[in-house]
Design a protein that fits this description.
Layout: E1 3-8, E2 15-20, E3 23-27, H1 33-42, E4 52-54, H2 60-63, H3 66-73, E5 77-79, H4 81-90, E6 99-101, E7 105-108, E8 111-118, E9 125-132, E10 135-140, H5 151-154, E11 159-163, H6 168-172, H7 178-185, H8 193-203, E12 214-218, H9 227-240, E13 248-251, E14 261-262
Parallel strand pairs: 3-4, 4-5, 5-6, 10-11, 11-12, 12-13
Antiparallel strand pairs: 1-2, 1-14, 2-3, 7-8, 8-9, 9-10
Helix pairs in contact: 8-9
The structure holds zinc ion (2 copies).
Length: 274
């Protein structure tokens, strides 16, 4: 049984709940701890039941409450050495926390996890593939580009969580400082809607024997994007693969929980447009 819900997504803070293979994980803790607690309780999940906290990278919108949460609930933190070093450099307090460093492949009980290093500012970022009993969920947010070597691992995954940060024209014509715009558009920045759509086209197998049933687009910029743009471009990408009728598009909102996804999809046939 797979369950997934974004508790928050965007530049003001990110956190996601993922349940698979008997593991209850929180990915990132970039919103105030109180909000994480409230949003978990909305789902009848006690924060004590979070078995592990996975951190993608050391930006405040992903890590700022990690130490607090881990100390209060004794939740083990998983992150890369580079993220840990960067967190220390930037002053995110992870003292008295149970710190574990990711290897490329991890087994958390029955849940298999593959970690991927993706380009995003100096210390990079970690993407994930979660696997259990033939079910595969891929998770990628905050990356300038998806390295070629990753496609093979995530191809035809059942669920894809993917950043669609900005519309390129809106980003270019925004009032942001020139170097922020340049960084966001670069390979060290964030994925544009267009990049996300090209990734979707390659990940979704399309037409026959396809597995992908839902894609959630994330980290959508408030200033330089709009949910309507994201949905339109992703729908067009799915149409190219003749998969628009069978793949549910979801958008992760910034300040509240997303739709709560529950597999198996037999219980969620409402997603499939007849
Ligand atoms: Zn971020
Ligand atoms: Zn970031």
């Amino acid at each position: 049984m797979f369950e997934f819900c974004s508790l928050a997504s965007g530049s003001s803070g990110n956190s996601s709940l993922l349940i698979l293979g008997g593991e209850t994980l929180l990915i990132d803790a970039g919103i105030p701890l109180k909000r994480i607690e409230e949003r978990l309780l909305e789902k009848n999940i006690s924060p004590e039941n979070i078995g592990r906290l996975l951190i993608t990278h050391a930006h405040g919108d992903h890590i700022k409450s990690a130490g607090k949460l881990a100390r209060k609930y004794r939740t083990p933190i998983w992150l890369t050495r580079a993220t840990h070093a960067e967190a220390q450099k930037l002053g995110y307090d992870l003292t008295d926390c149970r710190i574990n460093f990711f290897r490329e492949k991890e087994n958390f009980g029955k849940l298999k996890i593959k970690t991927f290093q993706v380009p995003h500012d100096e210390a990079g970022n970690t993407g994930f593939l979660f696997e259990h009993g033939g079910f595969r969920a891929a998770y990628f947010t905050d990356l300038g580009a998806l390295p070629e070597r990753i496609y093979r691992d995530i191809h035809d995954c059942d669920f894809l969580f993917l950043e669609a940060n900005h519309d390129v024209l809106r980003e270019k014509t925004s009032r942001r400082p020139a170097q922020v715009i340049e960084r966001n558009l670069s390979d060290q920045g964030h994925l544009s809607n267009e990049q996300a759509a090209r990734i979707v086209e390659r990940v979704v197998r399309g037409e026959t024997s396809r597995k992908t049933r839902a894609i959630m687009l994330a980290h959508i910029s408030k200033d330089c994007n709009h949910h309507v743009f994201v949905e339109k471009i992703i729908r067009a990408a799915l149409q190219k693969k003749q998969a628009a009728e069978t793949v549910k598009i979801l958008l992760a909102p910034e300040g509240r929980c997303s739709e709560h996804l529950r597999w198996p999809l037999s219980a969620a046939t409402a997603y499939l447009k007849k």
